[in-house]
Here is the input.
Amino acid sequence: MTTSIDLEGRVALVTGASRGIGAATARLLAASGARVAIHYGRSRAEAEEVARDIRRAGGPAPALVQGDLGREDDRRRIHRETVAALGDPLLLVNNAGVYARNPFEETDDAAFLAAWRTTMAVNLESAAHLALLCLPAMRAARFGRIVMVASRAAFRAETDAPSYAVSKAGMVNLARCLARNEGRHGVTANSVCPGWVDTEMAQPDVSARRAEIEGEIPLGRIGTPEECARAILFYLSPLGDYANGTALGLNGGSYLH
Here is the structure.
């Protein structure tokens, strides 16, 4: 038996969609019939390549929207340009994120705080802000789907990058807050929490210690962006209609919560 997922031309805004999990998600959503706004920060060439992939595969023409998610004016513009190009986004994937090492052994408190604030602004504050901007149209439509791309770190915690772990834990709880508040409007919010995924962000660590990392994963391998995209699609599609406020651990069994 096969299952075909049709997103019915709904508009999806995917942040950080020029590469990695975001790019795989944009491609899969377009293949499922969504009209995708591909957000990128600095990687325009990579974003254009994702758009070309979508067009070559016969998907609906995507839009490219650029902006620094650490800046609130940019977030407003990203939302505004998405609406102008495609219509109101009823599917929101908060995927973009930054990872900075800032251990508590840091002796420069200003450097520690700078890394902390940047991480929180990009990873967590932008997710809340974009959800807020999208909610009026979702409520009016009596339909909305929000997915946070969090991390295993939300539950496992991190010693070298506590701001990253805290921001991802915040995304999980943000989804739960939205789930409780917006369910009555037909809006759901959930989180996907990957472990190690073979992306550009993870590449330095993966290249240096792949055998060690894979040795900690019961399935014996690192995940792929496409596997994460399929989990995101579940939450955005009718298959996930009754999921609300959940956090899906997608880490090959390397951490259970």
